[in-house]
């Protein structure tokens, strides 16, 4: 047994044992049954409640300066400009957040119970506000991109419609001009035919009148000559 004990001690010395504190939920040893009084009594007897009370009375939250600045630097980004000292940055952030009863150590910052939750809440608020700003800018960018696309498409459509309307108007004007030209040529042709017909009729009438006048004058001269001949 001594050898076994020595072997056990050697095994424990060569390892890193972890102890788990178990709590018996009920005296019946059945599942899904919790006896609150019995559980609290076990925690009280085991010193768990006292350890929690002592932890809350002290500084349960301990963060290195780098971890603290890396997590809560968003609460005061302007405080980190031009400063490479994490300790000074931690001090400035805590002063800006107006926290009290904290301690600054050599390598860590010590916070009381609830202060970390307060800082996390403020950090979540800042991140939420930043997320809303980013979302607003992204929505603005997407809306503007869609607007530019719709405007470009509308411009192209308007240009196409205007071009079609102008082409149709030009075609109508061209046909109208061609119709006017055809009408002008037809009217000129009809007017020329009427003029030529009237000219031919006038020439025929003038010819007949001149011939009748010439025959009448010839008959008069003939009669005059016969009269003179008779008289002689």
Overview of this protein structure:
The structure is a single chain. The protein is mainly α and 232 residues long. The protein has a domain at 1-57. It is built from six helices and three strands, in the order αααβααββα. The chain has helices spanning 2-14, 36-45, 48-57, 65-72, 86-97, 115-231; strands at 61-64, 103-104, 108-111. The chain has a three-stranded antiparallel sheet with strand order 1-3-2. α4 (65-72) crosses α5. The longest helix has 117 residues, at 115-231. The termini are far apart. Belongs to the TRAFAC class myosin-kinesin ATPase superfamily. Myosin family. InterPro entries: IQ_motif_EF-hand-BS, Kinesin_motor_dom_sf, Myosin_head_motor_dom-like, P-loop_NTPase. GO terms for molecular function: actin filament binding; ATP binding; microfilament motor activity.
Give a brief rundown of this model:
The chain is mainly α and 232 residues long. Helices cover 73% and strands 4% of the residues.
Topology:
Blueprint: H1 2-14, H2 36-45, H3 48-57, E1 61-64, H4 65-72, H5 86-97, E2 103-104, E3 108-111, H6 115-231
Antiparallel strand pairs: 1-3, 2-3
Helix pairs in contact: 4-5
């Amino acid at each position: 047994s001594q050898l076994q004990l020595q072997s056990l001690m050697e095994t424990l010395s060569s390892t890193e044992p972890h102890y788990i504190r178990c709590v018996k939920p009920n005296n019946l040893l059945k599942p899904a049954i919790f006896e609150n009084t019995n559980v609290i009594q076990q925690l009280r007897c085991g010193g768990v409640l006292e350890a929690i009370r002592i932890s809350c009375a002290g500084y349960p939250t301990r963060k290195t300066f780098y971890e603290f600045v890396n997590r809560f630097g968003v609460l005061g980004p302007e405080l980190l400009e031009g400063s490479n000292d994490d300790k000074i940055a931690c001090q400035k952030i805590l002063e800006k957040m107006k926290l009290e009863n904290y301690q600054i150590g050599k390598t860590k910052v010590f916070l009381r119970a609830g202060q970390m939750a307060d800082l996390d809440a403020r950090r979540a608020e800042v991140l939420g506000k930043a997320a809303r700003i980013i979302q607003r800018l992204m929505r603005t960018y997407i809306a503007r991109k869609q607007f530019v696309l719709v405007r470009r498409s509308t411009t192209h459509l308007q240009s196409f419609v205007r071009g079609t309307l102008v082409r149709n108007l030009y075609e109508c004007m061209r046909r109208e001009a061609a119709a006017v030209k055809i009408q002008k040529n037809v009217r000129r042709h009809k007017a020329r035919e009427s003029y030529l017909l009237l000219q031919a009729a006038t020439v025929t009438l003038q010819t007949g009148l001149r011939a009748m006048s010439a025959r009448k004058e010839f008959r008069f001269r003939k009669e005059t000559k016969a009269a003179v001949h008779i008289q002689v």
